[in-house]
């Protein structure tokens, strides 16, 4: 066996930047790799060099192991692909050490991640959020547990994924939906494995260094994986099996500022000299803030299986399955501070513009100023299933036919359990009294922790003062499934311009449902006489102190949930006593104290049927003596979308009113169920061209019209309308079954240059987006004309006179937000210093940088006055840098991922889109291959314990400050 100096093929590092893969491979001859194994018809097609393509016979053979093998495969997929894409590949199942595919994908140029609980979950592509990212597994559409279009990438173990591609430009044969880009994940094809039998075992222990600061948190976890690939019956039958388990501690210490939704004149000034905007009468006040310890355990079990049969050379049948079970049980303990709204007394206010960011807040007889002790218990059980059967038949030398049937489903069962406690004057009294002597002092310090002071601080850890006052459970279930059928044809042509023509059809049927329900007992704002609070005993509680940077926060009581509930409800949780009567059509056979009609209105189903067809010509010619390849095509998509809706018919059975019962027995008789929706047809042309300038360089150009459908949960019907005492009709709907897709026209231009020890890639992109979804208020809305069942008049309860109804405001989601451009530059550079003398020839660097700019802005008023906010998911600057070194079985790397400030949904606070500060996440890894089979690995994720920090409009108005800790891994890999 011989070794050659690393050729240009090692420049795959420029495309991948993958972590180390501790596996061994034999000599490898580079040849064109298909970039879309499930989207094309002939994955075994060989290419010749008569049009400037790479001929395997003319390529030097080199011996590569592990990391470089993966990089070479990644490069071949990128270099010979027919779209603008980024690729990464694993040499074998289990070769990627990342916790999930989200971590792996963020190492590619132009891709960044939003960290949730310290882990990368949602990915952003070229400045666009996860809602614009379409994802497939083995070429098949995947549904999500999130209720949106974007999949949760942390539910996909990297150990079970063989390759991933991010298509930044589409082609007609790709399933529509990726306005930002399409992520294609692929599991193993066992007949394509190098060896007859492959077995890989991974075992790693895990430790979080911040867990010791959180009472009750787990410090240790583990990762285990097993995979097998085998070929039988003279390599006509292949089998692949994989299992991956992750059990990791979920830890965070956080401060969360809440939105500025209240207002009050705190400075006593209202100078109209320069107009009321110069110094308005009222200043904006935050709802409050939270200080919390988070802990828990996340358990993910992933399963993969595939059977591949090729009885003859021109036919192949493959069936595969992927399953993921991601269960999370977590607690959040600490304080929830309510500042009290416009009726609170404010002393010594500190302002940032027109918003209060500090001062002393004292409770009044009218205000709700208080400090709640919270012991939240959250459970989330997620399931992802994907099944498919694919047949590929080369009928003649020219004609290929591929058929595919698939089913994807996802289910999420999230249960948010809350236990509130409040301070009593004396918890031992016969009738405890809520302590209304509340004074809260605070001063925000921007992206640093605030100054805090509480007059009740000593009481927060005293069981003679603290009493449990309310318990609530808020289940939220999502189910999403899609069945799809696909038929593709490819016919080779004998032409100087075209190599082949492809055409096909795809039909999909998708159903999404959500189910909301609620149970509450007690009062979080005080003590209820009919549902009295619980006196705590010593065995139920533990005094918790804060540590580190948070050590000046007051101590509090961590409450054992089971012991408290068993003491409060020894005979089981009782049904509450009714006090509201038969309001708003809610009947009360179960005796509920509150009108819970919202839980019924926010439950429902969405139906989506899509018929898509395409025609695409593959180009293979010369222009001015230079080889030109690519494709041009058109995809036509017919969509039929609808959703269930409850129309308020005032309980009239003649108009279809029905008794609607939720899972807790709450009955509503006002509404008539109906189904509403719309249909539309889209024409999506696309073109991809690749011009080979020299043997070492090529120029790519792509243009296309692209679309992304709205998040599927935004199509749900949750319309409500009511008439006030003045006869004015007002209504609202968070969602809208008539929402149309996002559309954009995009252009890509990239240049790739390969040299002996590396590569340089530069790309420009431009997207012209038509519109975005936004929630707007429509004044003087014609409710009756839009099908709302509303009365012509109401009767004054005092005078008995008829009051004619008038149209008011309807607030809903619409496609009328003005669009705009997104444009940017991407650079990727790799250098393998193979020409240096040993042992320095193992050094290398891989780096990428992207700049993204957009004119798209939205106004946000979460921080008080409305201020412009950039497009969600957009960081102007995203950079990756990896330094690596390998020598005689030892490999090490350190990598940094940087993204500048961006906009995203605030951690732990739903529907609050805020600004996030820039962040740099650094990871380190070292491995040693002891022999051909056994290797050891050590790695640290988030080496500098980088927090996430957010703010409302300006940095002075603190959002979330969340610290996750470092994760340490130590493990072994065995492969044979």
Automatic annotation (TrEMBL):
<keyword id="KW-0998">Cell outer membrane</keyword>
<feature type="compositionally biased region" description="Basic and acidic residues">
    <location>
        <begin position="43"/>
        <end position="58"/>
    </location>
</feature>
<feature type="domain" description="TonB-dependent receptor plug">
    <location>
        <begin position="86"/>
        <end position="181"/>
    </location>
</feature>
<feature type="signal peptide">
    <location>
        <begin position="1"/>
        <end position="29"/>
    </location>
</feature>
<dbReference type="InterPro" id="IPR036942">
    <property type="entry name" value="Beta-barrel_TonB_sf"/>
</dbReference>
<keyword id="KW-0732">Signal</keyword>
<dbReference type="GO" id="GO:0009279">
    <property type="term" value="C:cell outer membrane"/>
</dbReference>
<feature type="domain" description="TonB-dependent receptor-like beta-barrel">
    <location>
        <begin position="475"/>
        <end position="943"/>
    </location>
</feature>
<keyword id="KW-0798">TonB box</keyword>
<feature type="compositionally biased region" description="Polar residues">
    <location>
        <begin position="32"/>
        <end position="42"/>
    </location>
</feature>
<comment type="similarity">
    <text>Belongs to the TonB-dependent receptor family.</text>
</comment>
<dbReference type="Pfam" id="PF07715">
    <property type="entry name" value="Plug"/>
</dbReference>
<dbReference type="InterPro" id="IPR037066">
    <property type="entry name" value="Plug_dom_sf"/>
</dbReference>
<keyword id="KW-0675">Receptor</keyword>
<dbReference type="InterPro" id="IPR012910">
    <property type="entry name" value="Plug_dom"/>
</dbReference>
<feature type="region of interest" description="Disordered">
    <location>
        <begin position="29"/>
        <end position="58"/>
    </location>
</feature>
<dbReference type="Pfam" id="PF00593">
    <property type="entry name" value="TonB_dep_Rec_b-barrel"/>
</dbReference>
<protein>
    <submittedName>
        <fullName>TonB-dependent receptor</fullName>
    </submittedName>
</protein>
<keyword id="KW-0472">Membrane</keyword>
<dbReference type="InterPro" id="IPR000531">
    <property type="entry name" value="Beta-barrel_TonB"/>
</dbReference>
<dbReference type="InterPro" id="IPR010104">
    <property type="entry name" value="TonB_rcpt_bac"/>
</dbReference>
